[in-house]
């Protein structure tokens, strides 16, 4: 591990062991908002192509372009490339992978999910490094994977069985003498709590990767840094001033949720209890209030805006502002209706038909408006879904209205510098500009740039595109302004 420590020292970082938390990454100089603290190429990664996904992604850069332009490996038929550059960069690993995959039986090829492929690649890459075909470095070697936590004693019996089955499958594909099946199972458990979902600039998932140094960074629900991806490279950027000696922290989950929901998510997937400044407020009055706003019910009085807590007799929920009580049965009735509609929304007929999805989600929205506090997170998520479908259908005017509806929620639940509000301002700005409201578009795009230049940097094609749009909108706005005079 000394190697890693000196590798980190060059980046003004240090590996440390903190009580309760284990391995942690500390800054050894001040970092400022927008600065890249650390970046890492994946030890292994895989695009989330499945046998059923119509759109395939390039194995190298994860881009998705017209399938006719993407070239498929002629031997195994399973790897796709956007061009010769990506094919060349992946060749050393894929040559070995291709040998394994192309000799597979048809029925086994069907079982090649992204996580199985990721595990195969882990072993193939380790072999290539052992054989010195791929060089090892301080930041890129299998020891780093070995050092990751597996939480084997904390996982359920069910998960253990599943990992054992998957390990057997990997073993039967590789057919290497002396391979340790128990170790493969343990590595699946490592994937579950360490592998990262790789997202594009707009935070849409595109694949999965293992970044053993980035994995050292611990979680906080009030993080000082953000993890973003450029292609398959992971970059951690400061979103706040991080003084020398401070721990670098990112968030593993959706931070807008209530404390109980966040803690549950962290416990279930990452098997630890968060003790960040937000989580340590659990049970305190302002935390109870925040949870009641995010997940609780609305006051019967339209003008009130108070939040509701369960009455001591358990028969209803009382507004903490005006004292009015909402009956448990009435709440139960609306909740059941919403549940039934949500089931309809997840049926294939709705997931494939945006118009149908919109009509169901609008009915859910109406019921949720009756049921929940006006700043409810459930309502926000429903409106996000309606917005997504409206964008797909190119119903721009209504999409803009929904985008604007979500902004006050975003402003309330996310810190000032966070990718999600930045992206929402971007969507808003694009729609305003398209619909001819250039002045508003300039305002929204400026807000988007102010946030995203910190979280995303300014060098990616995505950001260059945004900066160019803002420039064009500004020019158009000043032209409109001068022609009015
Ligand atoms: Zn590519
Ligand atoms: Zn191949
Ligand atoms: Zn927390
Ligand atoms: Zn009230």
UniProtKB/TrEMBL annotation:
Keywords: Metal-binding, Zinc, Zinc-finger. SUPFAM superfamilies: SET domain (SSF82199), TPR-like (SSF48452). The keyword Zinc applies. PROSITE patterns: SET, ZF_MYND_1, ZF_MYND_2. One of its GO terms (cellular component) is nucleus. GO terms for molecular function: zinc ion binding. Residues 58-98 form the MYND-type domain. It comes from the Eukaryota. Pfam families: SET, zf-MYND. Residues 11-253 form the SET domain. The keyword Ligase does not apply. This is MYND-type domain-containing protein. It comes from Glycine max.
